[in-house]
């Protein structure tokens, strides 16, 4: 059986790979993986925030279907996740690093009263066994390495030291040029990589799926030496933005709430970008260690490898920081897939430009592991593309949800919580975003790939707006949750009765007592 290594680096932009043509950042290990596999250029998440996006990946379902709408909103206990599918088919499913899974605490006490055991029945962590995190176990590791403190993670892995000897929290934007107090070999990416290799050494008999999930390069943007100074701030690309973008009513309150205003300052975006790239290079170096280990122990011959992210990062593009909304910098992510075996040689080292959604990854991994794909999963397997056989009627667009119910922005705008929603559809020609109670966005992706000119209120594009609004309606109508009706349909099929019209004429039910038709 095929092992599966599912790697995620949090908040990694799609363009930040040297094999994708980035002018500054260097990623030799991921470049090498892309040469062995396929790099998918047009991969989009279905919700550009950590928790819901990961839940889309883990379930293979859109956010409005799985119903975990923001960080901390629990995934309903009846949803099946990556660990459930694989453990029920003979795999050991493990998580090393960040999961961001929120269990259904409201239902958990009731389930326990009914005889469910959270450990036995895998009600937490998406059915995966958590082997290591960047939490208390990493803190104990730091203590064992001599980082003595009441809070070694905060004091060393989240604190920088200035040339003047001052310690500053990494959450402070002024801290980004300076090195973290932890050594690179003791940093979170190094720790998680060591744990991944430990697991591989101990699991030579049973097939496994490992979710290796790095928090880097997620904010706070700070890196240990020498990665904090690996790139010259003066050489980073300028932010992509113009003043017209600030006219949309959501921009002012959202920028204030999401810490974006400092990125109006040149020093901030230059240094934050340079350090962000350094964090990526640290992850890339650790992946190089891991891939070398796998080569030396024959694991590249029986392991599928998937590398991606849960969303991107703005770093000043469109006047924003971090993620959310639907600009390419947030919603498009890197994707590299490597599969051993001669049947994949036809696509090895290629770049695929077909539209891919993050919900497509779970069914792809399941197909490679010979696990049946059930009716709940809404994504499409990529394995045909990897084998050089594009399925008929492959998806011509990608879709995403956004729920900002929990943000103060909605209160500022006077929008009630249940209406703080937006949907996106993007195809090769246009990207359209429909907001409730706010102006829409429409971008001509052929002639304005940087998304600087919103055409939604241009009368010339009225017909385009209506066409794409209907696309969104069709998408939502066809992807609402049908986990229960799907189960019922699979069991019983169509239960309606179709009779010839002449049969109805003879039914007494259709006639009154005097014989006249009702």
What does this structure look like?
The longest helix has 31 residues. About 1% of the residues have low confidence. Strands 1, 2, 3, 4, 7, 8, 9, 10 and 11 form a nine-stranded mixed sheet that branches. Helix content is 30%, strand content 16%. With 518 residues, it is an alpha/beta fold. It is globular. α8 packs parallel to α10.
Structural descriptors:
17 helices, 9-stranded mixed sheet, globular, single chain, 518 residues, alpha/beta, 15 strands
Layout: helices, strands, pairs:
Layout: E1 3-9, H1 28-36, E2 38-44, H2 50-59, H3 63-66, H4 82-87, E3 92-97, H5 108-113, E4 129-132, H6 136-144, H7 152-157, E5 159-161, E6 167-169, H8 188-202, E7 208-214, H9 251-257, H10 266-296, E8 303-308, H11 328-331, E9 332-333, E10 335-338, E11 350-357, H12 361-368, H13 383-386, E12 397-403, H14 408-412, E13 421-427, E14 430-435, E15 441-444, H15 462-479, H16 483-492, H17 501-505
Parallel strand pairs: 1-7, 1-8, 2-11, 3-4, 3-7
Antiparallel strand pairs: 2-9, 2-10, 5-6, 8-10, 12-13, 13-14, 14-15
Helix pairs in contact: 8-10
Concise overview:
This protein has 518 residues and is α/β, with parallel strands linked by helices.
Number of strands: 15
Unreliable spans are 507-511
Helix/strand/pairing class, anyone?
alpha/beta
Instruction: Please give the share of residues in helix.
Output: 25-40%
């Amino acid at each position: 059986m095929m092992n599966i290594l599912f790697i995620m680096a949090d908040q990694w932009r799609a363009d930040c790979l040297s094999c994708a043509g980035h002018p500054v950042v260097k990623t030799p290990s991921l470049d090498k993986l892309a040469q062995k596999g396929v790099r998918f250029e047009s991969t989009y998440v279905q919700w550009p925030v950590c928790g819901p996006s990961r839940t889309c990946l883990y379930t293979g379902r859109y956010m409005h279907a799985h119903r975990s709408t923001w960080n901390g909103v629990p995934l309903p206990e009846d949803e099946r996740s990556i660990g459930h599918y694989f453990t029920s088919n003979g795999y050991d499913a493990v998580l090393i690093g960040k999961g961001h899974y929120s269990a259904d605490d409201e239902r958990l006490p009731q389930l326990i009263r009914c005889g469910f055991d959270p450990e036995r029945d895998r009600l937490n962590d998406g059915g995966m066994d958590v082997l290591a995190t960047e939490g208390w176990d990493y803190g104990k590791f730091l203590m064992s390495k001599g980082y003595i403190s009441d809070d070694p993670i905060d004091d060393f892995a989240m604190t920088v030291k200035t040339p003047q000897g001052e310690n500053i929290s990494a959450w402070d934007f002024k801290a980004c040029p300076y090195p973290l107090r932890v050594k690179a070999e003791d940093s979170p990416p190094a720790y998680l990589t060591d744990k991944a290799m430990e697991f591989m050494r101990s699991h030579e008999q049973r097939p496994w799926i490992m979710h290796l999930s790095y928090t880097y390069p997620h904010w706070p943007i700070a890196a240990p030496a020498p990665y904090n100074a690996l790139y010259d701030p003066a050489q980073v690309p300028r932010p992509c933005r113009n003043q017209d973008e600030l006219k949309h009513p959501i921009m002012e309150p959202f920028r204030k709430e999401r810490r974006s205003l400092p990125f109006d300052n040149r020093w901030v975006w230059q240094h934050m970008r340079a350090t962000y790239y350094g964090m990526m290079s640290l992850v890339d170096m650790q992946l190089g260690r891991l891939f070398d280990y796998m080569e030396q122990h024959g694991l590249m011959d029986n392991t599928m490898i998937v590398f991606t992210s849960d969303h991107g990062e703005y770093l000043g593009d469109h006047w924003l920081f971090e993620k959310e909304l639907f600009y390419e910098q947030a919603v498009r992510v890197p994707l590299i897939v490597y599969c051993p075996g001669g049947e994949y040689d036809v696509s090895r080292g290629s770049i695929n430009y077909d539209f891919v959604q993050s919900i497509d990854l779970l069914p792809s991994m399941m197909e490679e592991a010979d696990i049946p794909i059930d009716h709940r999963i809404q994504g499409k397997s990529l394995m045909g593309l990897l084998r050089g056989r594009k399925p008929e009627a492959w998806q011509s667009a990608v879709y995403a949800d956004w729920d900002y119910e929990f943000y103060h922005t909605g209160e500022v705008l006077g929008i009630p919580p249940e209406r703080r929603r937006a949907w996106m559809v993007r195809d090769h020609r246009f990207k359209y975003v429909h907001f409730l109670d706010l102006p829409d966005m429409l971008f001509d992706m052929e002639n304005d790939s940087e998304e600087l000119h919103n055409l939604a209120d241009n009368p010339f594009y009225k017909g385009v707006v209506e066409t794409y609004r209907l696309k969104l309606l069709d998408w939502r109508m066809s992807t609402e949750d049908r986990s229960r009706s799907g189960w019922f349909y699979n069991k019983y099929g169509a239960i309606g009765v179709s009779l010839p019209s002449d049969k109805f004429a003879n039914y007494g039910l259709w006639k009154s007592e005097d014989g006249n038709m009702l």
